[in-house]
Design goal:
It comes from Blastopirellula marina DSM 3645. It is found in: Endomembrane system. This protein is an all-alpha fold. It has a domain of 166 residues. The longest helix has 28 residues.
Amino acid sequence: MIVAIQEYFADLSRCVTESWTQFWFRAAEAKTLSMLRIGIACIALLYVLGYTTDLTFWFAADGVLPVSRVYEISGINDPESGASYWSLLYYFQDPTDLWILHAVTILTLLAFAGGLFSRFTAVASFILVLSYAQRSPIVLTGLIEPILCPLMLYLCLGPCGAHYSIDSVWRKRLGKPTIGKTYAANIAIRLMQVHLSMFFVMMALSKLGASYIWWNGAAMWNVLARPDSPLIDFKFLRSSPLVVYAWTHAIVLFELAYPVAIWVRPLRPLMIAVSIPIWILYALASGNWLLALLMLVMNLAFFTPLAVRPPGDATTGDENAASSSKKIPAHA
């Protein structure tokens, strides 16, 4: 009996160790990461462009939120609060300087989306977008900053310009070898997958714990009834409360199911397909279309492109990845 128990825990330990190693520490293609670079960079560009019309209104020295006011509101000067918000925009308060930095940010994000000097523009884009998010903790656009900024950080960790980029075109013209499978690409993608899953868990639990209206189904009506938020007027649903209740519960069930079902390969296409109408309707109802677009783009984190094979070779990218991973030793 004791021997059987020892063998069980030995097998369990070996299985967990091998699974953990296979999950994090195996080489992977950077095609998925490159596609995510394009999508996330475009969304970051839209996020920054949203400040264009009110840039000096908010951030100039004589604007609504000068640096001194931000320090006062956020408690940065208070040693007891322990608040700390770093931003490049703290050092650009003159309107001319602000517009120059804004132009540099836009050009950097365009270069990053196109894959020009990807290693450099990835880091620069992360710092610049983080500076906008941190410039004032009270000027935020909802839930997009807590997920956009970490995703841009993860792009800095892997070769996100290996494919679908100007860098890759130059590399081919110079006769340099194509970047193959790397451990950095796998780690960056895994971090995005885990972060996205935890974000869904956070959204679901916050809804269930914050207010009873998510339990009784009335929460979506509160969103639809806001006069300045919806992109489409859904007030006609006041005569169909059951539709509103079903909509509310569908969102909660989706957010609870996604972080679990997305890891089950047969269920993954279903969850991605369901997420499309869920987020489109959410964008139309709430007006927070940028978050909805980001969440739809992040489905790519669970997508593995098929490799281009010669005619007659039916081997898929997933099968090749599986076969190559078997050749990697457990300690790799």
